[in-house]
Design a protein that fits this description.
This is THAP-type domain-containing protein. By secondary structure, the chain is an all-alpha fold. The protein has three domains: 107 residues, no CATH class; 75 residues; 36 residues. Helix content is 56%, strand content 3%. The longest helix has 63 residues. It binds zinc ion.
């Protein structure tokens, strides 16, 4: 097992450096699937031994795994990310080092996050000469110190949040108007139905009283004009 490594040319994943969650998978047995694999791998592998070579799970899309993370029969390696090829360790370590932060962030509620960000920002001081580090395109100049860059980002983010809030308020208003319109149209529909029903009733009564057609029209016109 110790010499296990991914057969994809530049992929540096092997049994020793493999990050958690990465698995190795054997090549398919059927010639039909092998042909499909060859199409994908012809420029990616210098050597492929159908019996011994293994491909690491990084090269398969999620849809090709079943719930047990086993490779499905029709799986084809289609992913050859440049980052996986050149700097596997650095690329892998990022999610591992940030896993705790991600987990904690997922637990936070929106209001707590907002309060936390606001209080952190209050501790930062806006550079007095921020403007001198900002270009006319609202980017930082190459010589801008880190805090000026940070502040520009904070300002942009602030502006973005304001804009989003405005959009949200606008949307809410539109939804409210639509809801009101819908209710109004429902009401008028009901009114029309009621009118129609009473008209039908009047016509029926008139017919029962054997009013002539002319009398019926006269009475109906009077009712309508009311
Ligand atoms: Zn690989």
């Amino acid at each position: 097992m110790s010499n296990l490594h991914c057969a994809i040319g530049n992929c540096k994943i092997n049994a020793h450096n493999k990050p958690p969650g990465i698995s190795f998978h054997p090549c398919p047995a059927s010639s039909e699937m092998r042909n499909k694999w060859l199409m994908m791998l012809k420029n990616k592998c210098s050597m492929l031994d159908w019996a011994k070579s293994r491909i690491c799970s990084r090269h398969f899309e999620n849809k090709y795994f079943d719930s047990q993370r086993k490779l499905k029969e029709h799986a084809i390696p289609t992913l050859f990310p440049a980052s996986a090829m050149e700097k596997p360790l650095r690329n892998d370590s990022t999610p591992i080092f940030n896993a705790k932060t991600e987990r904690l962030l997922n637990k936070q509620v929106q209001s707590d996050l907002m309060i936390d960000i606001k209080s952190s920002l209050n501790k930062l001081k806006e550079p007095t000469n921020l403007d001198t580090f900002v270009t006319d395109e609202l980017k930082w100049k190459p010589d801008a110190p880190m805090e000026a860059r940070l502040w520009l980002m904070v300002k942009k983010q602030d502006r973005l949040i304001t804009m989003l809030m405005e959009d949200l308020a606008q949307n809410r208003k539109q939804v409210e108007t639509m809801r009101k319109n819908m209710e109004a149209s429902k009401l008028s529909k009901r009114e029309m139905e009621q009118n129609f029903e009473s008209m039908k009733y009047i016509v029926k009564s008139l017919q029962e009283k054997h009013a002539t057609l002319e009398e019926q029209i006269e009475i109906l016109t009077a009712v309508e004009a009311r």
